[in-house]
Amino acid sequence: MEREIITSAQNPRVKRLIQLQQKSAFRRQEGLFVVEGARELLHCLHSGYEVETMFYCPEILRAYEGSAEILALARDGMGQEVSAKVYGRMAYREGTEGVVAEMRVKQLGLADLRLPKDPLVVVLERVEKPGNLGAVLRSADAAAADAVIVCDPLTDLFNPNLIRSSIGAVFTVPTVACASEECIAFLKERGIQILTAQLQDSRLYYDTDMSRGTAIVMGTESTGLTNVWRNAADAHIRIPMKGRLDSLNVSVSAAILLFEAVRQRESQSGQ
């Protein structure tokens, strides 16, 4: 028997999804988060996350790449069809691909990370803007970083804005949250050098060897890193600033430093 199409935004299931989008406390309580868009959902599914409920609007979804795989899942009983009007109410952003899903949270800890020899890791301390964290994750994915560790986080890792700005990289790059002290102990136990991005008492980033196991550590744009990280660092590095401003957006800085590490490693391997 086919499920009825949801045609009212007052449907309790629609209201629950909207509450999951808007309230981090409710996400924690339910152990669920929301993924919107075909691309992000496929990244999430391919990374081993489980669907609780998938809402889709076929007339919107069919126009997008990846729709066949999602429609197949819907036919397997995972999906709940909604009208275009209801989907418009559920969509967190404009221009998404006709699918939004409730997913089961899968929390990773430091012990779950499986790092290779000479890993490349990004550490972010107290970054509070979901958009910045999402953009860093995109760069981490592009550079094939082995992990992103968010220390003393001020934002929910399953915030819809973070998922959107990362275009799903929060699922493709192993991402964990922990306390700074826990992270420092983890890195030092594994012999991973700690490079803190800061202006004071620092050397130029391209004069620093990043071909060995490396953690690139960055803080907030307003206050930078705390002394916990400054004191734990093996070296302090900086990006030269030639204009009047003294800092770049944290996501831009992350991209520059990550791809310097990539350049050094490829140069060393002869690629």
Describe this structure in words.
The protein is built from twelve helices and eleven strands. The chain is of the alpha/beta class. It has two domains: 12-104, 60s Ribosomal Protein L30, Chain: A; 110-269, 3-Layer(aba) Sandwich (Alpha/beta knot). The protein has a seven-stranded parallel sheet, sandwiched between helices. Helix 7 (130-142) links the parallel strand 5 and strand 6. The termini are far apart.
Q: What is the strand and helix layout of this fold?
A:
Layout: H1 12-22, H2 24-30, E1 32-36, H3 38-46, E2 51-56, H4 58-61, H5 67-78, E3 79-81, H6 84-90, E4 99-104, E5 120-125, H7 130-142, E6 147-151, H8 160-166, H9 169-172, E7 175-178, H10 180-189, E8 193-197, E9 203-204, E10 214-218, H11 227-232, E11 235-238, H12 250-269
Parallel strand pairs: 2-3, 5-6, 5-10, 6-7, 8-10, 8-11, 9-11
Antiparallel strand pairs: 1-4, 2-4
Helix pairs in contact: 1-2, 7-8, 7-12
CATH topology of the largest domain: Alpha/beta knot
How confident is the prediction overall: mean pLDDT?
91
The number of strands is 11
Q: Roughly what percent helix?
A: 40-55%
Rg, Cα atoms, Å = 21 Å
Runs in which pLDDT lies below 50 for 5 or more consecutive residues are: none
How far is it from the N-terminal to the C-terminal residue, by CA? 57 Å
The biggest sheet amounts to: 7 strands, parallel
Give the amount of beta strand, in percent: 15-25%
Domain module count = 2
Shape: elongated
What key attributes describe this structure?
single chain, 271 residues, alpha/beta, 60s Ribosomal Protein L30, Chain: A, Alpha/beta knot, 2 domains, seven-stranded parallel sheet, four-stranded mixed sheet, 11 strands, 19% strand
